[in-house]
Design a protein that fits this description.
By secondary structure, the protein is α/β, with parallel strands linked by helices. It has twelve helices and twelve strands. Helix 1 runs antiparallel to helix 9 and helix 3 packs across helix 4. The longest helix is centred in the last third of the chain and has 25 residues. Bound molecules: pyridoxal-5'-phosphate (PLP). Pyridoxal-5'-phosphate binds next to helix 3.
Length: 362
């Protein structure tokens, strides 16, 4: 026994389990478990990364001015209201570190993203889980859970792992009804996949209590590099910058992200393929007798009859080299989350699940 012990809350954190990427004994695997871009990163981002290798002896930019200006230009944002992080995970972490301490509450929803709870506990705060309604975030239930101790409310919109979407008027209603000691964090990791949705950028621009987070890990295919950003009122950005490491993003990461966000043609191609294939994949699942909500992201949530059936379907998919995500940890044990891959991947998944359901019925 020693007197060494971590801060309260830390031992309550269950280690994050990422999407599987290999299967023992299977070489030809298709990974559909982490919502990665099936087309990879933009070729221009790859070139920028390679070019950045020449400057590896240099410390990177600390204010990220060039990347922030590219993001601002492409998304119509104010560059000085942006903070870049090591993935949007780091922005989530900064928010908890800056605004949450012992005795403070942080609201997340029933099927919400695991990082909200992890970062809350790491800061010594108390996660408060709010029920959803048919796998949809419910604004009134969130409002009913707010107390004087509430500091943050996290919502992913579109949501992961459900792929559902809360319309902007509901989000606005929530932002307006929250007491002014509460920050609403709109996690826009999948915002680009919902046509016409700005991720809550405008709301973050006009309201002092709204923060938007975005990532380069999904649409931009740069999960391996770790780049994300937050968008908020200058007062919040100023707070977060004080706890940000001065060199949190590497030079190659900054260069690749900038090239990626400026590559409109590649982005448009990925979005168009995703929209077409997610519709096709959902239809195929419904045809096979598997329930599936309309997807607003780059994955679908396949709902089986029972958790046993979902486990059996998962085993069948794995036997064919198809890796999807079990989401029991998100309180959806009868579901499998399937990333929308390229056309071949979607066809293989649809075929495998159709065969599986036929065998079940026989
Ligand atoms: C993937 C994902 C993120 C992105 O995390 P990064 O740290 O930017 O890779 C954030 N929120 C949700 C809901 C996600 O699914």
């Amino acid at each position: 026994m020693t007197g060494i012990k971590p801060q309260p809350g830390i031992m309550d954190i269950a280690l994050y389990v990422g999407g599987k990427s290999t299967l023992e004994g299977v070489s030809d695997v298709i990974k559909l478990s982490s919502n990665e871009n099936p087309f990879g990163p933009s070729p221009k981002a790859q070139d920028a990364l390679v070019a950045a290798a020449r400057d590896l002896h240099r410390y990177p930019s600390t204010d990220h001015a060039s990347l922030r200006s590219a993001i601002a230009q492409v998304h119509g944002l104010q560059a000085e209201n942006i903070i870049c992080g090591v993935g949007s995970d780091e922005i989530i972490h900064f928010l908890c570190q800056a605004y949450v301490g012992a005795g403070d509450e942080v609201i997340h929803t029933e099927h919400g993203f695991a990082m909200y709870r992890i970062s809350t506990l790491a800061a010594g705060g108390t996660p408060v889980e709010v029920a959803e309604c048919d796998r949809r975030v419910d604004v009134d239930r969130i409002l009913a859970a707010v107390t004087p101790a509430t500091r943050l409310v996290f919502i992913a919109n579109p949501a992961n792992p459900t792929a559902t979407f809360v319309p902007m008027d509901e989000i606005t209603r929530l932002a307006e009804a929250l007491p002014d000691h509460v920050i609403l964090v709109l996690d826009g990791a999948y915002a680009e996949f919902e046509p016409g949705y700005d991720g809550g950028a405008q709301l973050a621009e006009t309201r002092a209590n709204v923060v938007m987070t975005r990532t380069f890990s999904k649409l931009y295919g740069l999960g391996g590099l770790r780049v994300g950003y937050g968008y908020a009122d200058r007062a919040i950005i100023d707070v977060l910058n004080r706890i940000r490491g001065p060199f949190n993003l590497s030079g190659p990461a900054l260069a690749a992200a900038e090239a990626a966000v400026l590559d409109h043609a590649f982005t448009e191609h990925c979005l168009a393929e995703n929209a077409r294939l997610r519709r096709w994949l959902r239809e195929a699942l419904l045809q096979a007798g598997v329930a599936c909500d309309e997807s607003h992201a780059n994955f679908v949530l396949a709902r089986f009859e029972t958790s046993d059936e979902a486990d059996a379907a998962n085993a069948h998919l794995q036997s064919l080299g198809l890796i999807v995500r079990q989401v029991g940890g998100y309180k959806l044990p009868a579901c499998l989350r399937i990333t929308v891959g390229d056309e071949t991947a979607c066809q293989r998944v649809a075929e495998a699940i159709t065969t599986f359901k036929k065998a079940q019925a026989a």
